């Protein structure tokens, strides 16, 4: 019985790739240094899977930034602004597309389906001259082969690539991206031919868009694409991989009807209903790559349950045609549980990171082949039972409080217009008030202080003194720049979700449980294993300290319940909304304590609200109902004069704008500039928004410093569709990933642009 892994984490067990990338970007190391780190990581990943007994090992899932950007490079689809003149795409062009450079902005970045991973959105149009411009897929296949590992090269499928793209600037929004299929398929044919010549016997096309709600025209594009590729694919075994949700009956019918395809990869964790489609109709002689090991979470697989599912499938597809697989790429999990030295043994026994999931996949495959490891299965069953019965998982008081939430929609008593009037009397802000999103640059010195405090190398008094000094520096800088509503810069926080999780009960933490979010940016999601509550105030001390340093309003900075949920590894033994309501009650306690401490502006970030939207439209309403309700729970008890902000970033918000309005925040700051001001289109189309709103005026994920004129132009575009009295001026997102040398001039230009517009508006009266 065979085994397969869809994809594997790239960063390395100790984030080796992250540090190599940042060293290269800072010009502290060479391209050769970066390539050597990458090659060592790839080699160790392939060896690990080979040693574990995996038969179908992927290649070309490694990336220096993002796999969709890799496909853009392969197709030579470089936007003209990057000045690429043909030939093999090198690091300069590649990273300019991802991060921008001193003269041009980066391409748009958005969420990869409903995950916290981000991808670089291709910009396409009728005039793009596609060409085979990156041989990475073939090079990595050859590299693995030279190491004695015959891999399955992985490509983003041609139809998913186009469906994940957007019309380039200046191209009609109605332009059919699928009309480009005949232009990109010749390049796919070149890549396939080179892989065949290099000795590949299998190829994997990731076509995850098959799980979306697709009309017949889009489904027909899959049929047309693989019809066209059929002769080129002859002689290869072809796997079409789908993940993250069920397939509709129409999509499943399209998938199993594709010509030249040998095998189908299905997510049977998040797509459990697809099982019924397989049982009712599976093509004879084809392979099923059954994704029974969860690639999105860190809980140990229930091996007995998975084995039972696989035995059912074996009866349908045949013993020789069933391959045990992960539900999706393991990119979305932490790397290796072996590196966790501080988790207690009980919780550790409940978990499986990527390395352990590889072992689980192979153990299930061997069990199906009649070589069941009884000791391994027995230990797994004991861990499953321990988790179900552990008293640390359940808190009856929390469950009772969450159950009592039913029957109320938890809205503030006064409408937003009246609240904004009351808040303005108290805050006395100018028109176009300026603010930032929360974090300021995390310097090496600051990271050292936090690290040494956690390691007990400095005292708590020394730590508090150092953090206070950092807050004072950030406050003084904002006053010097003349920003209207200040933040304390979050120097005490390495990560916005981890920081709160560490102070809430029901959470566990890892030392090296890093997961890639985009580029070199890694997050360390907390693990929610039990009922959630807040034992004591979490941010009041720091917010009060910061407010004491200035007469200007200081924002209290919190992470909202939906974002904490979506950016954590969440328990899978109860519905997600129940866990979210528990977190909402904990944040509500914190909001009310901040208000008592005279913090008059409180930001409750819901950066990940859109991210959690189910991929199926039929499931949207239920999710949005409980997600928006959770946010309202957090602040339903505050006074009218307390201004509640929220923040969202790097997703497409236009389709949920009415739910955003229903959150009933006083002010929302929202990413706008990197997505080419796509957000503003909803207001042009007539959506009325009466609360305060700050569409971002510059992209903080690029080192590029925007000019005053550029920012003023952006603000003018906003003023064309939004009322002057509700518009705020702010960056797209927090500033922690930037350097002060970039932040100071960018914020200076932002404030100057706001003042320029205020003067112009005053003189126009």
TrEMBL record:
The keyword Nucleotide-binding does not apply. Pathway: Amino-acid biosynthesis; L-methionine biosynthesis via de novo pathway; L-methionine from L-homocysteine (MetE route): step 1/1. GO terms for molecular function: 5-methyltetrahydropteroyltriglutamate-homocysteine S-methyltransferase activity; methionine synthase activity; zinc ion binding. The active site is at residue 701. L-methionine binds at residues 437-439, 490, 605. It catalyses: 5-methyltetrahydropteroyltri-L-glutamate + L-homocysteine = tetrahydropteroyltri-L-glutamate + L-methionine. Binds 2 Zn(2+) ions per subunit. Belongs to the vitamin-B12 independent methionine synthase family. This is 5-methyltetrahydropteroyltriglutamate--homocysteine S-methyltransferase. The lineage of its organism: Eukaryota, Viridiplantae, Streptophyta, Embryophyta, Tracheophyta.
């Amino acid at each position: 019985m065979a085994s397969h892994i869809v994809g594997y984490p790239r960063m390395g067990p100790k984030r080796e790739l992250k540090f190599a990338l940042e060293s290269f970007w800072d010009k502290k190391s060479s391209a050769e240094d970066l390539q050597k780190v990458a090659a060592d990581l790839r080699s160790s990943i392939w060896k690990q899977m080979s040693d574990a007994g995996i038969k179908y090992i992927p290649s070309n899932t490694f990336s220096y930034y993002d796999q969709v950007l890799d496909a853009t490079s392969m197709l030579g689809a470089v936007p003209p602004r990057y000045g690429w003149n043909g030939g093999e795409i090198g690091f300069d062009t590649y990273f300019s597309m991802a991060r921008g450079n001193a003269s041009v902005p980066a391409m748009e970045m958005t969420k990869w389906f409903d995950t916290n991973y981000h991808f670089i959105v291709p910009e396409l149009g009728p005039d793009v001259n596609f060409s085979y411009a990156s041989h990475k897929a073939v090079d990595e296949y050859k590299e693995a082969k030279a190491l004695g590992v015959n891999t399955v090269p992985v490509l983003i499928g041609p139809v998913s690539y186009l469906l994940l793209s957007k019309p380039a600037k200046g191209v009609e929004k109605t332009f059919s991206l699928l009309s480009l299929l005949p232009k990109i398929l010749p390049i796919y044919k070149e890549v396939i031919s080179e892989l065949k010549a290099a000795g590949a016997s299998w190829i994997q096309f990731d076509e995850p868009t098959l799980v979306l709600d697709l009309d017949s025209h889009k489904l027909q594009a899959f049929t047309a694409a693989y019809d066209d590729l059929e002769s080129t694919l002859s002689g290869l075994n072809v796997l079409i991989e789908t993940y993250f949700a069920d397939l509709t009956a129409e999509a499943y019918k399209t998938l199993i009807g594709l010509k030249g395809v040998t095998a189908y990869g299905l997510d049977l964790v998040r797509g459990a209903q697809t099982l019924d489609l397989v049982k009712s109709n599976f093509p004879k002689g084809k392979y099923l790559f059954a994704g029974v090991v969860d690639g999105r979470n860190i809980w140990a697989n229930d091996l007995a349950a998975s084995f039972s599912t696989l035995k059912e499938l074996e009866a349908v597809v045949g013993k020789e045609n069933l391959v045990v697989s992960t539900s999706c790429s393991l990119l979305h999990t932490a790397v290796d549980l072996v590196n966790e030295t501080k988790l207690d043994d009980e919780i550790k026994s409940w978990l499986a990171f990527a390395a352990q999931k590889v072992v689980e996949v192979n153990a299930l495959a061997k069990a199906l082949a009649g070589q069941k490891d009884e000791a391994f299965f027995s230990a797994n069953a004991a861990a499953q039972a321990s988790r179900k019965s552990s008293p640390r998982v359940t808190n009856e008081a929390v469950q009772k409080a969450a159950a009592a939430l039913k029957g109320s929609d938890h809205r503030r008593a006064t409408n937003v217009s009246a609240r904004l009037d009351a808040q303005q009397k108290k805050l006395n802000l100018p028109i176009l008030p300026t603010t930032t999103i929360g974090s300021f640059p995390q310097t090496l010195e600051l990271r050292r202080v936090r690290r040494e405090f956690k390691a007990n190398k400095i005292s708590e008094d020394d730590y508090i003194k150092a953090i206070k000094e950092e807050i004072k520096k950030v406050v003084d800088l904002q006053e010097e720049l003349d920003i209207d509503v200040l933040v304390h810069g979050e120097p005490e926080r390495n990560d916005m979700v981890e920081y709160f999780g560490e102070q809430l009960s029901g959470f566990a933490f890892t030392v090296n449980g890093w997961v890639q979010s985009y580029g070199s940016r890694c997050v360390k999601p907390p693990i929610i294993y039990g009922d959630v509550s807040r034992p004591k105030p979490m941010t009041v001390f720091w917010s009060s300290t910061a407010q004491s340093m200035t007469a200007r309003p200081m924002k209290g900075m919190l992470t909202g319940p939906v974002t904490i949920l979506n950016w954590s590894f969440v328990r899978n033994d109860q519905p997600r909304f129940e866990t979210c309501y528990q977190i909402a009650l904990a944040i509500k306690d914190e909001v009310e304590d901040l208000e008592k401490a005279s913090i008059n502006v409180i930001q409750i970030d819901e950066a990940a609200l859109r991210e959690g939207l189910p991929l199926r439209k039929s499931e949207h309403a239920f999710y949005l109902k409980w997600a928006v309700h959770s946010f309202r729970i957090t602040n339903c008890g505050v006074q009218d004069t307390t201004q509640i902000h929220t923040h969202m970033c790097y997703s497409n918000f236009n389709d949920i704008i009415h739910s955003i309005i229903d959150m009933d925040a006083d002010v929302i700051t929202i990413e706008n500039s990197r997505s080419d001001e796509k957000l503003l289109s909803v207001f042009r189309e007539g959506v009325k928004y009466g609360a305060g709103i700050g569409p971002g005026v510059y992209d903080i994920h690029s080192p590029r410093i925007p000019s005053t004129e550029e920012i003023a132009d952006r603000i003018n575009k906003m003023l064309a569709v939004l009322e002057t009295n509700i518009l705020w001026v702010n960056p797209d997102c927090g500033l922690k990933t930037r350097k002060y040398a970039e932040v100071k001039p960018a914020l200076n230009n932002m404030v100057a642009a706001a003042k320029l517009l205020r003067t112009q508006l005053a003189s126009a009266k």
